[in-house]
Amino acid sequence: MDIVELYVIIDDFCQKFMPKYIKLLKHKEVTSRNRRGILNISEIILINLLFTQSGYKYFKWFYVNELMTEYKAYFKRLPSYNRFVEIMPRSLPVLFRLLNYVMYHARRNGFNIEYVDSTKIAVCHNKRTNNHKLFSGIANIGKSTMGWFFGFKLHITCDTSGNLTSMAFTKGNTDDRTPMLKLIKGFTGKMFADKGYISAKLAQQLQDLGITLITPPKKNMKSRFMPVNFFDVILHKKRSIIESVINILKGKLQLCHTRHRSIYNFVVHIVSVLVGYQLLCKKPKIRLENYMVSQFA
Fold first, then answer.
1. Are 113 and 159 a contacting pair, CB within 8 Å?
2. Residue 31 belongs to a domain
3. 162 is in which domain, residue-wise?
4. Is residue 235 included in any domain, yes or no?
5. According to DSSP H, which parts of the chain are helical?
6. 26-57 tens-digit pLDDT
7. Is the dihedral of CA 165, 166, 172, 178 positive or negative?
């Protein structure tokens, strides 16, 4: 996406959100003034999103060698790298609101068919788990299909167009089924998942909310969670779409790295990656037209 087009999207949202947010802060006496800095909130968010889409692994290298040279003409004035790192957390409330908005918009315009999965977010190498200080007492040791890790879990749902529709962030040792009721807020339809979400209690809770949970059965287990018709069988085989989404988040947008020095900036990075993905033009997609035609033919 062009940098000007990206900034217009962000700035339009900020112009609607920021006045209400500043008014709320003044009402709660958190702040008494709204002083403008070198960069406004829209520009801070823009820089974060440009980094996620740049392909660079190190933010400092991107800021010094790319932003302050190639993109310098787009900004009236740029602070030093150290100063920008200090003001990054200012954008966090707006980023969260923007992420919630784009996910709500995607869910509202979907086909009531979604996929759910989780992925690990390690904050350090396993050998440094006992010596890690920044996330000590916050992160936890967990286990995924790739082995043990120290960090968090990101739980996401996506629709057939590859758009994120909800997310939850938990400690590394949290069961995948725990944040499920939070993830399905505002959704009714069919939810496809892997074996880690098998639970008769959870399936019944979702059924009462108008959601059909479809998972593959484990060995020596009744296929009560299996698809009930051919169309559902096809959709379940397309569950790799959410794996493709996670692959883009981690491989292309640099969701995970172990160089964080601030908890707030860690959260800013995670949310920026999710917003940046949602604004991508090309995403994994399931074309339902052919399957629907074959179903009703």
1. yes
2. no
3. 111-259
4. yes
5. 3-27, 41-52, 59-62, 81-87, 92-108, 180-183, 200-208, 230-237, 240-247, 263-278, 288-296
6. 656 555 555 677 899 999 999 999 999 888 88
7. negative
